[in-house]
Specification:
Order of helices and strands: EEEHHHEH
InterPro entries: DUF4248 (IPR025342)
Structural class: mainly alpha
Strand content: 5-15%
Helix content: 40-55%
Protein name: DUF4248 domain-containing protein
Organism: Jilunia laotingensis
Number of domains: 1
Oligomer: single chain
Distance between the termini: 15 Å
Number of strands: 4
Number of helices: 4
Largest sheet: 2 strands, antiparallel
Radius of gyration: 12 Å
Strand order of the largest sheet: 1-2
Pfam family, one: DUF4248
Shape: globular
């Protein structure tokens, strides 16, 4: 399901499974990938409710990707990248 940032924006954010590195880089495109991932993980861990909801359904913290459900939660709490 595409989600628009603004009505007139051409590119829509698609809710799907994303590699963690790819999603972190979408949120922090100006940082090197390693730092973007570190900061993105910090944002998630700092939001206790988001963190708890992301991992309550069995997805692992050490997985290399976020599920569609987790991506929906991320944009609910952190907005669209």
């Amino acid at each position: 399901m595409p989600i628009m940032k603004e009505e007139d924006e051409e590119e829509a954010f698609v809710v799907k499974s994303y590699f963690k590195a790819d999603l972190a880089h979408m949120y922090l495109p100006n940082l090197p990938l390693v730092y973007a991932m570190r900061k993105f993980r910090y944002w998630i861990r700092s939001n206790k409710e988001l963190y708890a909801r992301m991992y309550q359904a069995g997805e692992g913290k050490n997985d290399h990707s976020y599920s569609r459900r987790q991506v929906r939660l991320i944009i609910q709490y952190l907005d669209i990248p």
